[in-house]
Write a structure and sequence with these properties.
This protein is of the alpha+beta class and about 170 residues long. Helices cover about 25% and strands about 40% of the residues.
């Protein structure tokens, strides 16, 4: 009887965790995966004609938080600081002012940093990654960008951001 109760409890917990975990998006051509929680929806995916950049867009169902993941494919390794500088200055991305320094992200085969940005309309948390070793002869850079509407509950949004950001994996 004890084993039966333990088995039922494990099944219940597993089912609950699975139901809350959401959906994983994996891209074999750009070597990453990310899992959004169940209260997020994929809006669209756009890839360049040259097949060297792809963008995934997600929205939280309440409409107050968005996620944009941009993956870049290169023939040579890229310097992470140069990559960040280029994206921060890109007028099409319209990234607000950074509110502090960068946080280093540790990985064996990649370098990474995150930063926080803010203006009157939104708070943003952006994660940047660059592979340090080639994957099948190619190198990759990623920008995982969360945009939170100024009217949203920032603490709730940050919890969601941390959960999703922690799920981002580069596939080697």
């Amino acid at each position: 009887m004890k084993n039966f109760i333990i088995t039922v409890l494990i099944l219940f917990i597993s089912t609950t965790i699975f139901a809350q975990s959401g959906k994983t998006t994996s891209d074999k051509n750009y070597n990453f995966s990310i899992t959004v929680t169940k209260n997020w929806t994929m809006r669209n995916t756009v890839e360049t004609n040259k097949k060297d950049v792809i963008t995934y867009s997600f929205d939280k169902n309440d409409g107050k938080v968005t996620l944009s993941l941009i993956a870049f494919k290169f023939a040579n390794a890229r310097n992470l600081d140069d990559f960040i500088y280029t994206l921060e200055k890109d007028f099409n991305l319209n990234i607000p002012e950074k509110t502090g320094g960068y946080t280093e992200l540790n990985g064996d085969k990649y370098t990474g940093k995150s930063g926080e940005y803010k203006d009157n309309d939104s708070y943003e948390k952006i994660y940047y990654y660059s592979t340090a070793t080639d994957i099948s002869g190619e190198y990759f850079c990623y920008m995982v960008r969360f945009i939170v509407d100024a009217k949203a509950n920032l603490n709730d949004a940050k919890s969601d951001i941390n959960t999703i950001a922690d799920s981002f994996k580069i596939k080697f």
